[in-house]
Amino acid sequence: MTDKIALTPKTHTAPPAKFSHGIRKGNILQTAGQVGFLPAEEGRAPVPAGPTLREQTLQTLANVKAVLEEGGAGWDDVVMIRVYLTDVAHFPEFNEIYDRYFEEQALTQPPAARTTVYVGLPPGLLIEIDALAVLG
Amino acid sequence: MTDKIALTPKTHTAPPAKFSHGIRKGNILQTAGQVGFLPAEEGRAPVPAGPTLREQTLQTLANVKAVLEEGGAGWDDVVMIRVYLTDVAHFPEFNEIYDRYFEEQALTQPPAARTTVYVGLPPGLLIEIDALAVLG
Amino acid sequence: MTDKIALTPKTHTAPPAKFSHGIRKGNILQTAGQVGFLPAEEGRAPVPAGPTLREQTLQTLANVKAVLEEGGAGWDDVVMIRVYLTDVAHFPEFNEIYDRYFEEQALTQPPAARTTVYVGLPPGLLIEIDALAVLG
């Protein structure tokens, strides 16, 4: 039987419920939905990186990346990125931030597929992202 | 060629459109979005387990589990759970119900990753859940 | 290392950001979220197939299919279809269009699992769909 491994980066708080920040099983790695919380500090409630779309997007991407790396993967292994925004008006700015971020990641593989939809999120959060990677 | 197997638990109505309640192909099992409908009774339209978040969440989880089991899987095989709620205010109660449920399932593996977002659903439905499992 | 292949059908515009219309890696193929844009014409901004749910649904399904085929797959390989509608009132008509479409596709395998939720999309778009296929 293949191991099912929970991925918990050191930067992350314990999840607020009985789920894992990411799971790797065999060559499949799926991250939980990440938001723009700063690295956890003991005894402090989770705090978003800031109120702006830019701050939250970059922190969210950093949080997804941390889960990927905890599982021995990176952006080059990701086949699908699901993006949940809260405001359709954010789309152009989000794309600029996203593109610049991935240019800086210096991918050696084609970028992942992506779906972006507009949903409700808890107050103060503008974005949530999860990623599916296929390793090897 | 690997078989693509439709999973149709006995408790489930025929899907309302040309889709399967779950598919297993090789070691991948994906359930369709499940809602809180009670086990099907012939000649009766689908009926939610009740109006409350608790009733619908527990029935929805039971329905997902039924699809998993129809495919020879269980919660321990699930790598990702996607949760669609209709009201951000439901999050704390939902987490309580979810945690208690999975404590009772006595998982032997780490819990699945999870993404929770807030969307619209048909009238009367408070929650929808689907799950991705990797077997073996 | 298994190749990660970007899928870009000839009918598709370049994605509006650094993502791929679809990715195939090994036996996994994931399409990006497709909408009802007509085949791309150089120098023209993307144009939806029409304002109606029917026009957009059929074009969206055609766009998903084009990505699948670019990756050597087809509807029979799809295990999961995620449908994002913008209006709960569209569900019955959507199901009719969906069922008719898949009858015409003459599937030789069981239909994919499906999750349908109601979200916000950019102005003028009524539907978005992505698909996960497992080949072989």
Automatic annotation (TrEMBL), chains A, B, C:
GO molecular function, one term: deaminase activity
Gene3D superfamilies linked to this entry: RutC-like
Xref: InterPro entries: RutC-like_sf, YjgF/YER057c/UK114
Annotated GO CC locations: cytosol
Superkingdom: Bacteria
PANTHER family: 2-IMINOBUTANOATE/2-IMINOPROPANOATE DEAMINASE RIDA, 2-IMINOBUTANOATE_2-IMINOPROPANOATE DEAMINASE
UniProt-recorded name of the protein: Reactive intermediate/imine deaminase
Organism: Streptomyces mangrovisoli
Upper lineage: Bacteria, Bacillati, Actinomycetota, Actinomycetes, Kitasatosporales
